[in-house]
Amino acid sequence: VITHGGTNTSALTFTVAxxxxxxxxxxxxxxxxxxxxxxxxxxxxxxxxxxxxxGTNAAFTIFAGTLVATVPANAATGPISVTTPxxxxxxxxxxxxxxxxxxALNTTGPTNTLAAGDAVIYYLTVTNLGxxxxxxxxxxxxxxxxxxxxxxxxKGGDCVESNGVVTCNFAKLASGGNTWxxxxxxxxxxxxxxxxxxxxxxxFDPAPANNSVVSLNPVPVVIPPEPPSPxxxxxxxxxxxxxxxxxxxxxxxxxxxxxxxxxPPVLWSTVSTSPVVTGGQxxxxxxxxxxxxxxxxxxP
Length: 300
What we know:
Number of helices: 0
Largest sheet: 5 strands, antiparallel
Mean pLDDT: 88
Structural class: mainly beta
Order of helices and strands: EEEEEEEEEEEEEEEEEEEEEEEEEEEE
Shape: elongated
Distance between the termini: 100 Å
């Protein structure tokens, strides 16, 4: 600092900080026509000095911390760039110039194991999530090898089949509207099937991932083994007041148990006499019983 009294210099050094570089996190919507307002979000954008759509300068403003740019009249599809005192940043994804819509395709079909001679139904639904109407919508369904279409129905579409490929054309699908296709097919050969369906329209679709569906059949199903059928326990009186208990040997392994009462709490105990196998039967011979006895067979 210089005054009439002299000059004084601070002991500390003043450093001019460089402006932080800008970063773009995204823009919304991802497509539009000239004149549309596009919100560009990210970091360090508030000092923007220039916005370009694929190299074409665009008018812009900062509103509530968000950079809002207007699509210029002569812009072409391409990336958006923003320049600030900290540098220039360019989007990785292109901004599409023109109208767009998002078609979403869904299919349902058989999930059980199929065999030759079976009849199946594939049900396809197409929804236009907007914002623009979709024109010349085409849905293509490639039936699995080993299947042939029998009947095709649709809501407002014109469908044809050739060599297992079903093609349906819809002149227009309004924003927010939906349509459907139902394909009746017959299984001729094979035991594993893959059905592939796709949808498209004339307009740009910013989310192509939901335009196709691959359906696998059969879906693996784990069938638990059937439980063994309960054996029949036979009891007969023998000479000298003995009794014999018998059950088939071709059943699963069972343990013979007995209890003196069926009133709760019921306490079962294993019969200590080992069975003797004769005539396809497990046979246990017991001496004369005192009192009442109940018997059962239990799987270990």
